[in-house]
Amino acid sequence: MSTFAFIFARGGSKGLPGKNIRPLGGLPLLAHGIRLAQSIARIDRVFVSTDDEVIAVVAREYGAEVIDRPAELATDTASEWMAWRHAIAYVRGSLGLHFDTMLSLPATSPLRNQDDVLGCLDALRGEVEAVITVTPSARSPYFNMVSENAQGYSRVVLGNTKFQRRQDVPAVYDVTTVAYVTRPDFVLTHASLFDGRVKAVVVPKERAVDIDDEFDFKVAQALLDT
Question: Has keyword RNA-binding (predicted)?
Fold first, then answer.
């Protein structure tokens, strides 16, 4: 059973320009995911899909193989699911390689560790078609998350008068970008990740930082420094 790791890193980033190659803890952000994948014996090859020449240079410098992503799959509105399909088609078609498991390691979650990734790989078994990572949510739509109605009044998103304490509501989780695991054929035959049977692996908050802006970057740096 072969496992290929993919890092999808486009050049454009409005929240934090150049974030995928910005140094964090002495390494370009992108390199954290590459090095982690390389350190796991169960991962056979590591690819970086990008539209950006500088990112491609950095990816190769750290030992990853590069997939040239078409510009139309690297815009702010482009679906990453389609970038996944393009990467699979490239590996199967242009390289002529077969692989059983697809692991996506977003560059923006540099604090993950081997246990997080191995836990996701192990969870793809039986009838499970995709694996995501989550962390316990600080807010609950049953208790302290609100939305506005047409009259401008706020109501609990999933209001239910039987819940009087937060401790009584069903557990909810935030989806993280620590890792995604699935099979290539699932991606090619489904429209989205949640079209299938999805298993969630819980990771601690301190390893689930998703860098989207300057504040996130500072949080990640502070956690690395502790």
Answer: no
| Alpha-carbon span 124 to 194, nearest angstrom | 14
170-180 pLDDT per residue, tens:
899 999 999 99
Tens digit of each residue's pLDDT (9 = 90 or more) over 109-168 = 999 999 999 999 999 999 999 999 999 998 889 888 999 999 999 988 987 667 777 788
pTM: 0.92
SS3 187: helix
DSSP 8-state secondary structure symbol assigned to residue 126: T
Q: What is the radius of gyration, based on Cα positions, of the chain?
A: 19
The DSSP letter of residue 199 is: E
List the domain range (segments joined by +) for residue 151.
138-171
CA neighbours within 13 Å on the CB side: how many for 51? 17
Residue pair 51/70 in contact by the 8 Å Cβ criterion? yes
Give the three-class secondary structure for 112.
Answer: coil
DSSP structural state of residue 52: -
Same domain membership, residue 89 and residue 31: yes
pLDDT at 161: 65
- CA-nearest of 11, 201, 206 to 118 is 201
Calculate the alpha carbon distances from 85 to 89, 163, 190, 213, 226 in Å.
6, 43, 10, 27, 38
Phi, psi of 223 (to 5 degrees): -70, -35
